[in-house]
Design brief:
The protein has 277 residues and is mainly beta. Helix content is 6%, strand content 35%.
Amino acid sequence: MLSAGDFFCLDKHQFKGLFNGTDYVWEALPRLKAFIKEYLEPNIKGIRKGGTMVAKTMALYEGKVIESGFVIDESGKKAVVKKDGTVLDGASIVYEGSFLMDDFIQIGKNVIIEPGALIKGPAVIGDGTEVRQGAYIRGDVLVGKDCVVGHTTEVKASAMLDGSKAGHFAYIGDSILGAVNLGAGTKLANLKMIDSPVVLNIEGQVYETGLRKFGAILGDGVETGCNSVTAPGTMLGKNTLLYPNAAARGYYPGGKIIKVRQSQDVVDNMEDQHGRG
């Protein structure tokens, strides 16, 4: 019920090792920093050139930095790099005006780093991911394949597994996200107002996490509405919907709907609903 496999499909997942030896999914959070250190293969030194702001648009292709002689074709759904009329399959684009704060950053294939994005290491950015204008990756961050770290979205000490999307104005702190979609303005609060570790009370059993900072665990298929909030230590099972403006706290099994009704949070069974409102 509370293991990583209960929340995420980890078969052949690139970050599966993060959860090795854990009984409860939140136990991966204090292991995140060490896992990234072992996993990380930095590859952006040739782009930084000793500075923090990228001075000119460059491409990463087959482990090499390409500074000139290429064009960026933005006519399709996603920009691609071309050289001599041929698409460089797998080439990543780091746009002028983005910020790479140190060398401890790994950028995968087909990644796009837009102008104004800021990345602090250690950080891993997986294949096919977009880090959009104004995004802020604060370090100790794993981002999987085909993810979106969107405009003014801040991520710190967290893992976004494959297919995780936070397109607009989100805060993700000390959290683990599966293949989810966060509505604009979603905030995953990670620090209790009272100075004490997060304690979970799930179906009458108390779990001492020992974590002072613990944001949220969002299982595969979770969707949050605009301006929704989760309290520290919130766990949403697979395919749970958190409606706009609603606040969630505690543990919710999969397939639930959490919404605001007359200023109170109400949890409904998915099967009782005919639509998403």
